[in-house]
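In these records, each integer encodes one residue's backbone shape. Here is one protein:

___
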Amino acid sequence: MKIKKAIIPAAGLGTRVLPASKACPKEMLNIVDKPAIQYIVEEAVKAGITDILIITNRGKGVIEDHFDHSVELEEILRSRGKTDVLKEVESIANLANIYYLRQKETKGLGDAVLRAKEFVGDEPFAVMYGDDVIIGEIPAISELCEAYERYGKSVVGIKEVSDEYIVKYSSMKLESLDDKVYSITDMIEKPTLETKFSNFSILGRCVLTPEIFDILSTIPTGAGGELQLTDAMAIVARTKGITGVDFSGTRYDMGNKFGILKANIEVGLTHPETALELKEYIKELAARL
């Protein structure tokens, strides 16, 4: 079954990037000339996803504004003959069928996903974390969707991370199935170094089946007193197994100050309007370090 629906949880407070996120949602922080969440929506669209639900909360109405038409701006661009920019601005409002739902209290990723139950219905669906921008030739979520079609199980996007990060993320118990594809039979959220299964962690992308909603409805809160999606997926992993895909793109953590800097530098080095100047600037700067 083709994956046509995606959820983008974007209700987090962005405390790791304060004060920038005090008035501007971290999902709207830019990478060169586009907000982070636009990269995520474009990734979904490239993978053939047509319906996207963005989970927001108070103070994030600017996300809705970004994916809507701006009649005044469009008219000004039209009157000034700026047709290229006009087409780009208009296209943002026509990327996909985008819906919004508020998570009135920040109770964790599991709670955000649970609120999407009516939107999802009885279909498999993608979850694309609002903190994580993944850039590559092949959309990361497309790689996960292909693995779902091949193996018929829930899928998570994984990467190997250092001990420093594994204790902040999740840890997978896994065995190799194919090139960059793994069978996952257990997982743990925010492990200690003594309890980790491996240094493979879920980073930003999942494809799940609707059974996850019944599990989320019955499990207790987990790490941080929040409803953890990882805890629900661990139950699926232990009973039915989950497929892990070591996706090919580069992941940028937009909830992390250094992650934002890396994203802007690396994307800036490939952007046609900034690449040459940025490359020369970095060379000059490096010579002074």
